[in-house]
Every structure is written in structure tokens, then in C-alpha cells.
Amino acid sequence: MASLIATAIMKSPNVGESLSGIFGSVSLTAWICLLLPQLITNYRAKSADALSMKFLFIWLLGDVANLSGALCTDLAPTTIALASYFCFADLVLISQCSYYNAINARRRSRSTERRRHASTATQDTDATAVSDVTEATEHAPLLRSDSIGLPGSHRRHSMRRRESTLDPLTRVFTGEDDTPDPSPWLHNAVSLVAVWAVGTAGWLVTYKMGAWDMDDSPAGDGVVAAEPVAVLGMVLGYFSALCYLCARIPQIIKNYQEKSCEGLALLFFLLSLTGNFTYGGSVIAYSQEKDYVIRALPWLIGSLGTMLEDSVIFVQFRLYSPERRQAKTTGVA
């Protein structure tokens, strides 16, 4: 998505270009930090059940198309490096999710097999054996709820079961305290303020270092080279935008089906919203010329369209929050 941000730092800035540079720097900061909250959340829960793998794979496909477009159109090295980072970060998150999914699937399979054997044993043993099996199964009520509970219940039970096995000091040290965060939106807002501060400071540092005093060049002005390359770049840009727009749909459907967002990092989607918003602002602030906007259109569609889908996920976070679920259970309005 950052295919046009780098063009803003290739010449002495006016007001619009300065604003574009600040937005672009904030966007880069948000994208670099994007996956960290979800990686940490998965690690703490030792589970990735909350994430849709379709979401991650389609997102990776969009980032690969974005990188291919950057390479084909010979964009600035910083742009290519950032697009490469996107692909690498996607692969890290996919690898982590695949690992936890495989581990937990084997664990659930072994648990199901043990219950099956226990059930068979009760049919062929005397009353004493039946009593022993009953006593053994009393220690695994949460495992049984994984297969017969409500949608999303296995995710909540597995997270709580892991928390319960940790001593209080370990929970505090690792941040896995089972006490719910009373103000998650406030704490995440503080994190976003930090992203804005770091991004703005990064732009100021590059300005003081003279990065904005470089002479204009054809590549810096974003001049389109050969016509076939330009067409290929636009095709890849629109394909990348389509992937970004489609990626959120499986995650939204999964949240709706399970009536839960537990296990998803709210900051992950807030950083995505910030990165898309500042990227769009950077592109528009840099230039409002028709030709420039047309060339930037696929990336703008991908960014602004994804913001709408992220807004749907924010509504799901609110609707499926533990507090709201508890209020419905207790009958409190």
C-alpha cells in the first residue's frame, strides 16, 4: 500500500507535501507495528482459534501483489523494502497460527479419543470401574465443552484454562492476568497516540537530515515508464486492492458465526485503521492532480474500503464483548 508514500520525500516540501510526509511516516509506523499485538495475543493464549486463516491468506496474496507491482514499476527502494516486510510479517503470523492450530487440533483429537475409550470401557466393566471412569472425567469438563459448547466457547475455555494453570506472579510477569481490562479502548488509544508521536518524530528527523532537500528526478516525480509496465502495475494495484477488500470478509463471518471476538487483538485492527487512514491522507495531501489520483486510485480503494470493513469488526467487538454477553446472561438491560 505504500507504493506512493515514498515519492513525497524526494523534493523540498510545501505545506501539502509536508502534511503528506507526516501522514506517510505515521502510516509506516502503524504498518510496522501492525502484527505485534496479534502475535502477542496468540502467544499468551497459546491459540489462534480467533483468526480466520482465509483472512490471513487473502491478505498475504494482496501483499504479494503489492510487492510485485512495486518491483515491476521500479519504485523507490524504501517502498519495495516495506512491501517485502509486509509479506515477511504475514508469513510469520500465518506460521504462528498454523503451529498453534496444529498443536491444539492434536490435543483435542487425543482428548476425544480418550473420552471414546472411557465410554467404551464403562460398558464392559463393573460398578467399580464405572466409578473410576466417572471420577477421571470430572477433571475434564472444559475439554468436553470444546465439542458440544456454543460456537466460540472452546476458544474462551482454552484461554481461561491456560490462565488458571499459571501462578499469580507468572500471570503478572507475562501480562496474562485473568482480570479483564476495564478500559481496553482507552489503553489502545494511548498506543495509537504513541504511534502518531513516533511517526511525526520520524518525519522531523528525516527532514532535519535533509531527506526533503533532494533534487527532483523522473523517478521521484512518479513518472510512468514504459506503457506495458504501467498497465501491469495498475492491474496488480487493483488486484491487491481487491484482495485487501475481500480479506476481512471471512473474519467478519467467523466473528458473527461464533458471536465472539475473544482472542482477537483490538489494537491490531486499530493500527490497521490508522495505517489505512494516514496512507489515504498522505496520497491525497501530496497532490490532487487528476492523473496522480487516477494512478493512486487502486491503493486508495484498498485503503479506504478496508477502513469500512474494520469499522464492522469494531462493532462486533462491542456487540460480542464479555460485559455485554454477561449482561444478556443475567438479564440486565
UniProtKB/TrEMBL annotation:
<feature type="compositionally biased region" description="Low complexity">
    <location>
        <begin position="119"/>
        <end position="131"/>
    </location>
</feature>
<protein>
    <submittedName>
        <fullName>PQ-loop-domain-containing protein</fullName>
    </submittedName>
</protein>
<feature type="transmembrane region" description="Helical">
    <location>
        <begin position="292"/>
        <end position="315"/>
    </location>
</feature>
<feature type="region of interest" description="Disordered">
    <location>
        <begin position="111"/>
        <end position="131"/>
    </location>
</feature>
<feature type="transmembrane region" description="Helical">
    <location>
        <begin position="20"/>
        <end position="43"/>
    </location>
</feature>
<feature type="transmembrane region" description="Helical">
    <location>
        <begin position="225"/>
        <end position="245"/>
    </location>
</feature>
<dbReference type="GO" id="GO:0098852">
    <property type="term" value="C:lytic vacuole membrane"/>
</dbReference>
<keyword id="KW-0812">Transmembrane</keyword>
<feature type="transmembrane region" description="Helical">
    <location>
        <begin position="266"/>
        <end position="286"/>
    </location>
</feature>
<feature type="transmembrane region" description="Helical">
    <location>
        <begin position="185"/>
        <end position="205"/>
    </location>
</feature>
<feature type="transmembrane region" description="Helical">
    <location>
        <begin position="55"/>
        <end position="76"/>
    </location>
</feature>
<comment type="similarity">
    <text>Belongs to the laat-1 family.</text>
</comment>
<dbReference type="Pfam" id="PF04193">
    <property type="entry name" value="PQ-loop"/>
</dbReference>
<dbReference type="GO" id="GO:0015174">
    <property type="term" value="F:basic amino acid transmembrane transporter activity"/>
</dbReference>
<dbReference type="GO" id="GO:0034486">
    <property type="term" value="P:vacuolar transmembrane transport"/>
</dbReference>
<keyword id="KW-0472">Membrane</keyword>
<keyword id="KW-1133">Transmembrane helix</keyword>
<dbReference type="InterPro" id="IPR006603">
    <property type="entry name" value="PQ-loop_rpt"/>
</dbReference>
<feature type="transmembrane region" description="Helical">
    <location>
        <begin position="82"/>
        <end position="102"/>
    </location>
</feature>
<dbReference type="InterPro" id="IPR051415">
    <property type="entry name" value="LAAT-1"/>
</dbReference>
